[in-house]
Amino acid sequence: MQQNNQRFSTPAPPQNAQPYDGVLPVDKPMGMTSHDVVDAIRRKVGIKRVGHGGTLDPMATGVLLIMLGRGTKLSDRLMSSDKTYEGTMYLGSSTDSQDATGEVTSEGEWEHITQEIVEEEMKNFKGDIFQTPPMVSAVKVNGVPLYKLARKGKTVERKPRLMHIYKFKILDFNPPEIKFVLRCTKGTYVRTICNDIGENLGCKAHLSALRRTNAGSMDIAETIPLDEILDMDYQTVIDKIIPVAKFA
Asked: What is the DSSP string of 26-58?
């Protein structure tokens, strides 16, 4: 599967284009949902047509592309772009959300786990894989988000989805914490991969930290922390927006 990391050319904007039409590259803070960030930018700029190019869980930080005005027409392109993450897998326990925000559901021994064992298991997740979305997710079944069903204690059948993992590498091995980098196609649940590795190795595991460092052609170095954006005056924010005609 070929990486989707090329910039897309777009036609020149119409004469009645607004200065806010485009994409604002935000460094999302921890603790906010992607929709929270959209609402904050909507209030800051004072327009209704605002969206984002790929959900980040509240625990996650990093690249979140906010589309404004006619920039929302780029939604399909941004949503479908490949993503790169740096995260931390925590050995010894699994949770009901598969990350650190959930309740511990089971524990396992991890002291015997070596870097070589983990690296060998990680190989099984490279290339094409089928992944079943977690119950605590925004995926909808019969129009209802899974997380709403999970809150009621319900579990429903979910169809596995084809994903592709381009890169999965350990950055630092300091058990029970393992820092890693992962590049994947859209819709990949990194926390599910951590959970599955823990299950496969019998030691249990969950995702304890996650940062999106790249989305398509947009790198984390090109983003602006949300708190800085909210402290800017209106014109400065507008100047930071990448116009539709220039965005890839």
From this structure: EEEPTT--HHHHHHHHHHHHT-S-EEESS---T
Q: Give the CATH fold of the 83-131+161-215 domain.
A: Pseudouridine synthase (3.30.2350)
Determine the topology of domain 22-81+219-243 in CATH.
Pseudouridine synthase (3.30.2350)
Residue 27 bears catalytic tag: no
- Predicted confidence (pLDDT) per residue in 111-131, tens digit: 999 999 999 999 999 999 999
> Is there a cis peptide before residue 243, judged by omega within 30 degrees of 0?
no
Give this prediction's pTM. Answer: 0.88
Residue 118 contacts residue 173 (beta carbons within 8 Å) = yes
Active-site choice (21, 57, 82, 99): 57
Question: Do 22-81+219-243 and 83-131+161-215 agree at the fold level?
Answer: yes
Tens-place pLDDT, residues 167-221: 999 999 999 999 999 999 999 999 999 999 999 999 999 999 999 999 988 999 9
- CA-based nearest residue to 234, from 15, 13, 20: 20
b/e map of 119-134 (b: 16 or more CB within 10 Å)?
Answer: eebbeebeeebebebb
E-state strands within 77-160: 83-91, 93-95, 104-107, 127-131, 140-141, 144-145
